[in-house]
Amino acid sequence: MLHLQKTTPLDTDYLESLGFVWHTDRDETSYISDTLVVISEEEAEAYYEATNTLYDMVVEAAEHVIENNLFHEIGIPFNLVEVIKESWENDVHWHLYGRFDLAGGVDGKPIKLLEFNADTPTALFETAIIQWAMLKKDGLEEERQFNALYESLVDNFKRLVTLEEDVSTFEERYDGWNFLFTSVRGNSEEENTVRLLQHIATEAGYNTEFAYIDDIEFSPDEGIFYENKNYELWFKLIPWEDIALEESDLAMLLTNIIKNQKAIIFNPAYTLLFQSKGLLKILWDLYPNHPLLLESSFEPLEGKKQVKKPVFGREGGSVSILDEVFNDIESVAGDYDSHKMVYQAYTELPKDTEGQSYQAGVFYAYEASGLGFRKGGKILDNMSKFVGHIVKD
After folding, report:
1. So what's the pLDDT on residue 1?
2. End-to-end CA distance of the chain, in Å?
3. Please, which of 68, 129, 156, 299 could form a disulfide with 365 given CB 3.0 to 4.6 Å?
4. Which parts of the chain register pLDDT below 70?
């Protein structure tokens, strides 16, 4: 059974003073759990090592997809293939951050990869800031957490210029390039997450600005503009697959902007390869029976309990748990039924005394950088709660 520790809830006025305004779910319950998951130093180290290993494997799998032209097989929209190749072939298209969702890792259960949210992961604010504030409020040692996410992002922003582990030469190599941060209008969670990233990039040393997506001008030959000012670097919290499927003209513009080297976009287009659940099947092909992986296939797994999930989806939408004879025993409705489906062997998530399931999320920003948990039902959906953690001997 999980080891949990009660904490004093953070009041909503304090959370809003931090910019964290999505603190209450639509049923009026708190989105932030008033408990911490207690983990050992060995468990924290195991999450760190597993995440770094998985990132190397994901890169190898993506290279395999590109070399063998498997884009269609893993569900990549055809109108992004060119920009994915362009971004993959040049180191300046640096991967800023992503989040691995993992089963196990506590209570003696082995760590298993569920998926990699590599393009537009959520829970950045919660992991980097909120769970740290929970320790601080209760007078707990702030360093007793696997959480260097903020500092790792500062360094990884600098690597967009240095393109190497050492960031000490950033100031002398940064040539004043302008960095524009963008979200859609009317989504406070997305906007404040983007503004947090803008704040971190400013601290790293960049000239930054924020703009809503509908205020930006795109030119295939000139680049990206806001209020007549050119921006060489652009961060967007808008999924690449949404751009491909809903904004095909923008997909074409961005492809040409990158081909003409008029701007660099974060996260890069190739992170859609990492994001696709179809890559889980490629990983299993390349690393069969690897201890960090679950068997995955594009066909139902014979005689096994399994999870059916779309190659692209959010918040558990269109996900089902199937029993050994393919009966649907748990499911969450969603808007992703038309996507290609992946079948992944089922693994039980750690549970508390109330039967709530816990899933680990480890952020990767050049290396594994910060751990948080979500809890909810057997399928974690948009009503799941964020749970912080504390490391104890």
Report:
1. 77
2. 18
3. 156
4. none
Report d(CA 159, CA 91) in Å as an integer: 11
CB atoms within 10 A of CB 227: 9
Query: What is the spatial distance between Cα 334 and Cα 315, in angstroms, rounded to a whole number?
Result: 9
Phi then psi for residue 216, to 5 deg, are: -100, 145
Positive/negative CA dihedral, 375, 376, 382, 383: negative
Q: Is the Cβ–Cβ distance between 37 and 388 less than 8 Å?
A: yes
Length of the chain measured in residues = 393
Sequence-distant (6+) residues with CB within 8 A of 85 are: 66
Question: Is the separation of the CB atoms in 364 and 98 below 8 Å?
Answer: yes
Mean pLDDT estimate for the chain: 95
**pLDDT value at position 338?**
87
Query: Which DSSP letter does residue 214 get?
Result: G
Q: 83 pairs with which residues across the strands?
A: none
pTM above 0.90, yes or no: yes
**Structure-block tokens of residue 122:** 């959520």
* 36 C-beta neighbours (distance < 10 Å), count: 25
Nearest to 76 by CA among 264, 263, 245, 224: 245
Number of other CB atoms surrounding residue 238 within 10 Å: 19
At residue 25, the pLDDT reads 93
